[in-house]
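User: what does the whole thing look like in 3D?
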Amino acid sequence: MVNREHPRKLDVAVLGATGAVGQRFIQLLENHPWFRVAEVVGSSRSASRPYGEAVNWVLDGSAPESAANLIVKPLEAALTSPLVFSALPKEAAETREIELAAAGHVVCTNASANRMVVDVPLLLPEANAEHVRLVDIQREKRGWTTGAIIANSNCTAMPVVMALAPLRQFGIKRIFVVSAQAISGAGYPGVASLDILDNIIPYVSGDEDKLETEPLKMLGALDGDSIVWLDAAVSAACNRVPVVDGHLVNVSVELAARPTMVEIIEAWETFRGPEPVPQLPSAPEKPVQYLPQIDRPQSRRDRNAGNGMATSVGRLRECALLGYKFAALSHNTIRGAAGCSILNAELLAVTGYLADFQPATAVYSAQ
Amino acid sequence: MVNREHPRKLDVAVLGATGAVGQRFIQLLENHPWFRVAEVVGSSRSASRPYGEAVNWVLDGSAPESAANLIVKPLEAALTSPLVFSALPKEAAETREIELAAAGHVVCTNASANRMVVDVPLLLPEANAEHVRLVDIQREKRGWTTGAIIANSNCTAMPVVMALAPLRQFGIKRIFVVSAQAISGAGYPGVASLDILDNIIPYVSGDEDKLETEPLKMLGALDGDSIVWLDAAVSAACNRVPVVDGHLVNVSVELAARPTMVEIIEAWETFRGPEPVPQLPSAPEKPVQYLPQIDRPQSRRDRNAGNGMATSVGRLRECALLGYKFAALSHNTIRGAAGCSILNAELLAVTGYLADFQPATAVYSAQ
Amino acid sequence: MVNREHPRKLDVAVLGATGAVGQRFIQLLENHPWFRVAEVVGSSRSASRPYGEAVNWVLDGSAPESAANLIVKPLEAALTSPLVFSALPKEAAETREIELAAAGHVVCTNASANRMVVDVPLLLPEANAEHVRLVDIQREKRGWTTGAIIANSNCTAMPVVMALAPLRQFGIKRIFVVSAQAISGAGYPGVASLDILDNIIPYVSGDEDKLETEPLKMLGALDGDSIVWLDAAVSAACNRVPVVDGHLVNVSVELAARPTMVEIIEAWETFRGPEPVPQLPSAPEKPVQYLPQIDRPQSRRDRNAGNGMATSVGRLRECALLGYKFAALSHNTIRGAAGCSILNAELLAVTGYLADFQPATAVYSAQ
Amino acid sequence: MVNREHPRKLDVAVLGATGAVGQRFIQLLENHPWFRVAEVVGSSRSASRPYGEAVNWVLDGSAPESAANLIVKPLEAALTSPLVFSALPKEAAETREIELAAAGHVVCTNASANRMVVDVPLLLPEANAEHVRLVDIQREKRGWTTGAIIANSNCTAMPVVMALAPLRQFGIKRIFVVSAQAISGAGYPGVASLDILDNIIPYVSGDEDKLETEPLKMLGALDGDSIVWLDAAVSAACNRVPVVDGHLVNVSVELAARPTMVEIIEAWETFRGPEPVPQLPSAPEKPVQYLPQIDRPQSRRDRNAGNGMATSVGRLRECALLGYKFAALSHNTIRGAAGCSILNAELLAVTGYLADFQPATAVYSAQ
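Assistant: Here's the predicted 3D structure for the full assembly of 1468 residues, as structure tokens:
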């Protein structure tokens, strides 16, 4: 059993705290049962100023009081928090995250810089909690004791992997994905309004490559000390759309076992992920929900399902080319970014990877 | 040689003239070199009122003066115009269009009701001008002399067919299409703003079926007195997006001949359609233009290319599943509806199918 | 002291339950500490069907389970719930609401039909809780015992009145209002997307009249058995804008006492409304919050302040014509409609106007 | 009589040519009957590259071929074109525009830097063509021979001044303006999409000040060698809205002469501006058009009236505070920026202020 409360909260730092995803970390960590934001790290422009002044808060309302009073630290500052969440841009992330891990911090990162490094778990607890064991490999190989680096995936890969994870049992062979991605996926200021109002842009820099690789690692199996990627072919086309939050994907999939539609829907509806994932504080009751209406999921109406942590799937129907097609949607800055990173940290906590902090005795066991 | 001016303009009627596509007909026919709107036909609610009063003009500006003063006729009224453009809803179109054709009118329709009838050409001049000869079959079979019915395609099929027509030479085997369709495609009032602002709807009633069938007829070959459909598999997924005009499609295609990207782009850029199509008044200079920028075509910025009659294609790249993928865009109520119907009528005129009205001596010849 | 929980919940009915505001009632009443939706009333099209099937849910997610299973009753059905919330269209509301009140029901209505009737309180608890006493006049005059009818205001009047109520102490003389109103204010299907995407419509049917009268009644004082309207001149201009929720108003105001900006901001920030209003379950902690940022309030970012029940004010500055100007924002379907009606009912409960149901001993006293 | 064609076109330079307004200059000057873009000037980042490569074209379609091949010159480059259009940012404009005028160039600028300088005409030909004579003062005072600097107004001031100019005859006393401004008014990248999608921002930096001063200078009278400002009080509130192009204003106005609504509408409809303004190539047939529909003007539907050069006015009605209120709309980057600057240059040409270039013998005369 996982305790949802813990007598003492663990100090955490947020890197890139003034950016759009950084703000989402701050927002989601407000009142977190286990973690407490103790340090915020920003650019040189923000450093030494109170967070509440330095941040141009782009989410609803204002920055939470508790974070607003923290003084922003510069990127190179030594940190005291054992756990670090990173919303750094790729370039800044590449070396700094490794340095922090080497210095003993557990770094849960949303940056793409280290995602595809062989010993870095691309962790999505419901789908691949067992990948957390790569941390042991990491520590052994790199000579780290308490430090580690754990990544979450690209925000558009998220609804694809969440929808496909329950279907692995049927043998995934080929995947076709076309996305409709919200503007918040590009950060702030990100997409210029003149580029997206009354417009669709059939291009998102770098995301097609990520969509064609990250899911294969995420849906792969831990074999000894490495991940064996899923053996499937993926083709992705990415579009930016005038939607604030929520990445919607049209997916076609070929399944070796040729299940019925009823079997597929049951696989989604009963999917919970392995123990103890469903008991983690940020885990949604149903990671995947199937919507029976003919015109769902919809970006605005379904992005907040399960506090933004549930993936909504709908419109399962036959595909003349691959067998089945459907639509799936995840909130891109919650489930697809900060929320997933926090869930990853919760899994690390209960599986003993956060030194001196284990809010529950349960140790994850893949069996 | 086709004369772009004609000493006498042909009277035309517009059915469903007060609807969104009907208005586009009225707008595009204003100052047309060959045709003159002489009759407007509307619902019983509009009948007997001046068009300018009856119409809730949803396009830019106001209804053209000349049309504004016409008195709206009821649907069942006998018409005097030899040529009739129909923007009727499907149900109203089904019988009325046939009645008018039987009464001697040439009916160019945007309605879906009769599109898939075997002897009705689903005409797109640049792609299948030879299909116009089905009119001979029609007349013979049905005992019509001057009457005929000619359909244009679904508005989302348009960018697919325009982009694929130049590629037929390479042998089209399989097609994957995911659309991002503008709200004007649903007419007026059509999509409720509460359904589409800050939202994507992964469903457009009926359009996936149309996308999986109409292109095969349109890209088919006239063989004797019928069309042999293109032998290709199509899978389509349709989405409604918050864009005013312009249907964008993400297309993947398998081509038997495995052409290079250079060959494909050249096929698009040099595509003009058969003579005398390029000389028709509404024909764009380039029916298909390839945009080299990495993020084009875009709905708002490219929908008006060639006065809304050109299809823009971009982002040609390899597809891990089918060989190639690209994005294509057509203006849905111009090229995808009223503008195509007018171009169809222009082709009928020069090929002698409009009795007593042939603005040019040139007769279409498929060779 | 008001108990926020009550041993037994009061059955309530929702009229017009399938409409946009009706849905908001259903959503806000889910898990209400005092009230329980026992009856849902809809149009003849919906009647006799389970609510979950009859409703086209336009809010986020889906209709709450508990309401989904209720069978929709026709408008003319006799009701058993002592308390009735009405989201009826004006025409339907006019007679039906009076009939229900005459039959003993307390009717809290969002409809405009009876708002300006002399003995009907146009109730906004923080601003004019004392108006609740008009119910005594109503009952006496009309011979009702347990029945009553209480209205909430037009949704655009709401941010105006909420922002001005704390300023009454300074003597309000003239008011200039220009609105930017969200599409949800027009119900569903309401505004056609073709009318509002990439567009502003400088007209909202009927709202300018309401804005120029309702605030004067709401800000008026109970004098004996009637309300003496505020003696102020109002000019309003209304605009529909492409925003989902949230009505923003630009207000200029002339204040007789010529307070300083500091005094005005203090009046807003300290405003709570009279006892026991701040203790009601749906009352926000701060009914009016002043935002110091130069570019707030903003429709999307501030509409959900205080669970949609707080009004955000900002940009207080001098006005060359009237003295001061500022911007104010309220969530139009929560504070401006269903949420206010529920707060009204809560006030009725604690002040003893709901027969046999008084969740607290405190009786409102205007002294 | 003004010749609309001229045997030789005058070379012009565009400063800030790669920005959003600079692009609009390039677009509007394509095929101009009198002027020919010979030089494009950009930032150091763009300098020495072909314009077509350096520019990130944000308008529809692509940069015109002719301009695309010009090599971008750096800001400090000496120019050969006698006429210079400036779309520079304020800071860059301040000194460079004066230097160019001193060097003999006629500079028509959209920048705000020099607008309120006493001897710089804030020119709007239909409203204040006589202000062009300030150029004589300028030249005399500053010792310039062929050089001059002429400004056009802020883009939001435009619909206000265009709507009020025909009403000067009635004696304008007080003006209340609330704007709804398009995103293109902020240039590119300008407004971040996260700031404006599904949102209204009740703040536009600097524009309220401009709205409260520029119209008074523009509507002022030339008296000897200076402009006597209109003696009226103005209060402005500015809002940014999710609209691509078109600034809409809600205006209330007090008119000393208390004209009837019929008289006001007639004043608008018959307004043409003084000779020879109506004959200038870029002058719209009707500078101000009154729309009788109850819900017009609308940003999207009316911004392109008169090729973007006409101002649309509607909803004239009584105002309880000032007498009358109405809505007005101008295209902000055409009439409100580049288009006005070009019209200004056309007026300079026919009135003899462009040395050696006078496409018509007509000299403007204010009488």
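In plain terms: Chain C touches chain D through 41 residues (CB under 8 Å). DSSP finds twelve helices and 14 strands in chain C.
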